[in-house]
Every structure is written in C-alpha cells, then in structure tokens.
Design a protein that fits this description.
Distance between the termini: 19 Å
CATH topology of the largest domain: Rossmann fold
CATH architecture of the largest domain: 3-Layer(aba) Sandwich
Strand order of the largest sheet: 3-2-1-4-5-6-14-15
Helix content: 25-40%
Number of domains: 2
Number of helices: 13
Order of helices and strands: EHEHEHEEHEHEHEHEHEHEEEHHEEHH
Mean pLDDT: 95
CATH superfamily of the largest domain: NAD(P)-binding Rossmann-like Domain
CATH class of the largest domain: Alpha Beta
Radius of gyration: 21 Å
Largest sheet: 8 strands, mixed
Length: 369
C-alpha cells in the first residue's frame, strides 16, 4: 500500500503522524511511505531521518495524490478537503461530533474516514486516545497554573500555596485517563484537589492510587455547582466516545467563581463540557468570560510535539500496519476495535454517535463491506 503523511497545517500544530521507526516498520512489510517535505521538523525529526528509514520525501500534492491511505494527526482543514476521494482511507483524529461541516465534507468526498478517538476495545477503553489524553491531562494542570498568573488575567494564586498560605483548589471533572493524570500532577504540585466522576469504581481507584490525597465526589449537579463555586482552577476532561461532551458546567456556575479563577476544558475537541468554553488556538489560547480565564485549545498536546508524536505512533502503528497489510475489509473483519473506528464509508455515517449528534442517518458498517 502507498501511505502518505502530510505536514499538519492547523495553527501551531507541530506533531507529525509517524516517526522514523514507524516508517521502517511499514517499509519492512513492503509498503511505500511518502512524507511531505519538512513534516517532522516541528517534532525534531528531519527529512534525512525519514529517508534513512525508507520513506520518500515529496510535495503536499505528491503525498496526497499518491497515497491510498493518509495518516494524519488532526482533522483535514478546508485546503485539504479537495484531496479527499472515494479510493482514499483517511486515518486521523476527527472528532466529528463537534463539526457537522467536516462530517458533511467527508460524506461528499466518498472517502473512508477512520477516527483514532473512536477505536474502542471490548472493555470500553480507547487505545489511540489514551496517549494524547495522558499528555493533555498533565498539560491541563501546567497551563492552568499559567492561566492563574496575574499577567494573564488570573487571580495570582500559586497552585502549591506557600508556608502559611493555602494551596489552590483544583476541581477535575471526569476520572478517565486525562482526569486521572490531571489529578496526579495537581496533587504532586501540592494543590487541594477534588475529582468529580459518575463511576464509583474510578473514584475508589484514584483514592487508593493517590493515597487519599484528594477529595472524591460523585457526579451530580449539586456537587458540581458547589465545587466549581469554590475552585481556583476547573479542569474538564469528560468524554463519551464519538459523541459530543455533556455540558456539566453552566454559565451560571462559571459566573459564581471568583474573578481571576481559571478553566481548562480538555473536552473542547468534542464540543466542551463547560458552557462558556469555545475553541481557541495556541496562538491565542485564552480569553476572559464571566471574569474567569478560559483555556480551550483543541490540540493541547501540540505544544509538546516531540513527546506527543512518539507517544501517538506507539499507539497507532499497529492499526496502520493492519490496514496496510490486510486492506480495510480484512482489517476491520479481524478487529472489532478498528471497525468501531470507521466513522464514514462510501458517503454514509457508520458510527452511531456521530449520526446521533446531527440527527443524520446511520448505516451499519457490516452492510457496506
């Protein structure tokens, strides 16, 4: 199979969809890998490294035009949509439930669109979302502390506090991978941490892992309202695979927070779990709403591209090899998790949560293969 890896063009997105070791693994199986010139520079990978691994370096037109499967990090932007065609497999993060316009563009193109974030194992885990969720959760505390600095409009509260001065109160919504990592980092920095989650087993796990150094709360409106009101920093990490994130924090709750408090909505890729959150970019990551500093960058791991690129390839390569070796039909027949990743095929939506998000028809993948 001919595999293309274009340079990411989203604002300040410096990740690339493959590493030299990933290229070597694909070429060793007889596949041809085309990488756009300079695609890896933001992650510290020069073209010569890709060449040594067996890749061919070309222009953006060559990469898209020659490819039977395109590996990306982020969803295609407007200038990339004309490259989509019925014979192409697009394998990337898509987050379609938050973008009806992209969903309709993929349907019109006739391409096969497989979303990293909806590949789901039988136990409900999301193996290709996990590494970026881990990084985003850790970053959320780091950027949250930055938002609280006075020069960014924050209240000037230090997460750890100081001798005789209380630490910041951090509230984490959701105890999945991102939420768990946010809790670990916040506790490690000495903050006073509360986590709100609907699954009691996750709360029990976090309580045990962190030695009781945080408050665990069941998710309900009263607990969310009270915790948000008292918080210096709220981190939203709620996720429902393939669907829009539920709005757990209302504008009224945000309005009740102290001026200069901060919100980091990690769920913004899926529409956000906080009513006042709207997508931002690394170039302009924050804004004030209801006198609270908001950070809602849709590609948070992009600010640590070297770490993110290697972590991502570690997770995606096995699935990319399966698609290249066995083709779409064979690969999804052999792997139910990969089949769940197929969002669009032959102009039809094959993922129920995406169809439900826009009240569009859903077609079973099995009926199209």
């Amino acid at each position: 199979m001919r595999i293309g890896v274009p340079k990411e063009i989203k604002a300040e997105e410096k990740r690339v969809a493959i590493t030299p070791s990933g290229v070597a693994a694909l070429t060793a199986q007889g596949h041809q890998v085309w990488i756009e010139r300079g695609a890896g520079l933001g992650s510290g990978i020069v073209d010569a490294e890709f060449r040594r691994a067996g890749a061919r370096i070309g222009s953006v037109r060559e990469v898209w035009g020659r490819a039977e499967m395109v590996l990306k990090v982020k969803e295609p932007l407007a200038s990339e949509l004309p490259h989509l065609r019925p014979s192409l497999i697009l394998f990337t993060y898509l987050h379609l439930a938050s973008s009806q316009s992209l969903t309709r563009a993929l349907l019109r193109s006739g391409c096969t669109a497989i979303a990293y974030e909806t590949i789901q194992l039988d136990d409900g885990s999301l193996p290709l979302l996990a590494p970026m969720s881990e990084i985003a959760g850790r970053l959320a505390v780091q950027v949250g502390a930055w938002c609280l600095e006075s020069q960014h409009g924050g209240s000037g509260v230090l997460l750890s506090g100081a001798s005789g001065v209380r630490p910041a109160k951090v509230v984490v919504l959701g105890a999945g991978i991102a939420g768990t990592n946010a809790c670990q980092i916040a506790v490690g920095m000495g903050a006073q941490v509360s986590v709100i989650e609907r699954n009691p087993n996750r709360l029990r796990y976090l309580h045990d892992v962190l030695g009781g150094h945080l408050t665990t709360l069941m998710s309900n409106r009263a607990n969310i309202e009270s915790a948000v009101h008292e918080a210096d920093l709220v981190i939203g990490t709620v996720l429902i695979a393939g669907a829009k994130a539920p709005r757990l924090v209302t504008r009224k709750m945000v309005r009740s927070m102290r001026p200069g408090s901060a919100i980091v909505d990690v769920s913004i890729d899926q529409g956000g779990c906080i009513e006042t959150a709207r997508p931002t970019t690394h170039r302009k990551p924050i804004y004030l709403a209801e006198r609270v500093v908001h950070y809602a960058v849709t590609n948070m791991p992009g600010i640590v591209p070297h770490t993110s690129t290697y972590a991502l390839t570690n997770a995606t390569l096995g699935y990319a090899l399966a698609l290249a070796n066995r083709g779409l039909r064979g690969a999804v027949h052999d792997d139910a998790a990969l089949a769940r990743g197929v969002n669009v095929l032959s102009g039809k939506i094959t993922h129920a949560a995406v169809a439900d998000a826009f009240r569009l028809p859903h077609t079973s993948l099995a009926t199209l293969l």
